Amino acid sequence: MISRLPPERRGLIVAALGTSLTVSWASSYYIPAVLAVPMADSLGLSPVWVFGAFSMAMVVSAMVGPWAGARIDGAGGRGVLMASNLIFAAGLVLLAVAPSPVLLFAGWAIIGLGMGIGLYEAGFATLAGIYGKEARGPITGITLIAGFASTVGWPLSGLMLALWGWREACLGWALIHLCLALPLNALLPKGTGSFTGATAPTEAGPPPSRLALVLLAFVFAVTWFNSTAMAAHLPGLLQAAGASTAVAIAAGALIGPAQVAARLLEFGLLRRFHPLFSTRMAAAAHPVAAVALVTFGGPAAYVFALLHGAGNGILTIAKGTLPLALFGAAGYGQRLGWLNAPARILQAAAPLIFGAALTAWGLSAIWLTAGLGLAALIALLVLRRS
Question: What sequence ranges are listed for the domain Major facilitator superfamily (MFS) profile (predicted)?
Fold first, then answer.
């Protein structure tokens, strides 16, 4: 029996990995919102092209995710995550010096490679390799920290943009990867199974059924679609429901705190229950919020934001904890990569699809995401604990 990891060492790993993932999210997923317009203006492009390059990056991340997961299963996550920091830095430097749209797209393709091996899926697989089925708590812990990526990333990107310019902001994020995130990932245990308790990460059980895998991939795909659609169009949706611009912005600001509050609930009370229970509750949150918004209009904007944010917060954790609980730790990383590949691709298309629906249907566009959320809930009800 290999000895348990001391609690203080576990806390250090969660803090280090959570912080490095915060940098990775802030310097990839969250920079277009601040830098896309100045980036496009300097190259004589429409911002649509920059967002298109970002969508391409998400498709690239979906393609490399299963490979990264398999690599982490076999050799542990430290090397993969450290490589992601170098790749992120290289992509950001290429963006910073890009003189043409061709190199801009090349820079985003490299960042997409970093996203495929350096975001939540890689972090979850790393923790599963260290802790086995006991990784639920650490997985929740890193999402609590990295949940502040937009809170940190948007203001910091905006500050660097205002002081120096968008190219220097990209160089700044590259430097943060090399000087902060890379050393933090170097603190992680070297391989899989370094520290385990009663449950070893290499334990193998019966192979999961194809139906269960398809259902879970569907759940992840539609919930990521909803999350990305709301991130891109929430103010417009709330205004279509009758909320003022000020109310729509204020309500949108509640999503982040609601996500963190829900993750704290998962870390505390809900950890006593099977992850399938909390995931079902979370999947129901968006459809309920949609009914409230359509029924009561603008005055329900705050309720909608709180319910959607809370559900999204737990669903992010469920991406890591539910496959671990249902299928075990053996082959977890590669399986997680395949389960999330459709989600990444649908996520790339979500802003365009929901934006077109909002333009054509107004508030009724919410029935698209509500219907998908209800379908995800039905799929989760079909799934069983074993």
Answer: 13-386
